[in-house]
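Here is one record:
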Amino acid sequence: MSVPTESPSVSPSRARIVWRWRVVDIVVAAVIGVVGGVLYWGWTLPAAALAAALPGVQSLGYGLWLLAGVLAALVIRKPGAALFAELVAAVVEALIGNQWGASTILYGLVEGLGAELIFALFLYSSWRVWTAMLAGGLAGIGGGILDLVLYTPAKVATTAYVTTYLVCFAISGVILAGVVGWLIVRALVPTGALNRFASGRQQPAV
């Protein structure tokens, strides 16, 4: 039995939100989340090294923890994709084991919602690189706020530190989640791997 493909894309002015998820959407979003979770777990030690070497601007390397959500949204192009994939990634990372334990799932929720909000603001009709960058940036701000609230001592959280940390996290999200996620989709389109999705039948517009 063949899996139905997405209908051809339409111009943003006539685009409609497709709410219904197919089995292939769930499977691919879950795979992105699982792979992302393993990647997130592997990034834990390098991120700790960044924190020790670059206090205050270490969040410039934290955008990698936002990639799964943005990438899933760009591939699936349906409401909930960013949140679903980021939550799956967070659960996988927590199950493998890290120093943050169950709070990792809270990060997945907040960061996934941050990315989701941007795509929702554009009514799930804009998949350009700058939309992905905004999604990664807002997800980074959400993750940065959680870091500051949960793990940053009050004596360290000066105005300068908080501002620098959030700006660096947002920039990292813009680049490592937004731009990299968009480039991954752009690279996959010619291979035919995304043919069952609207995202696979056209090069992502800049």
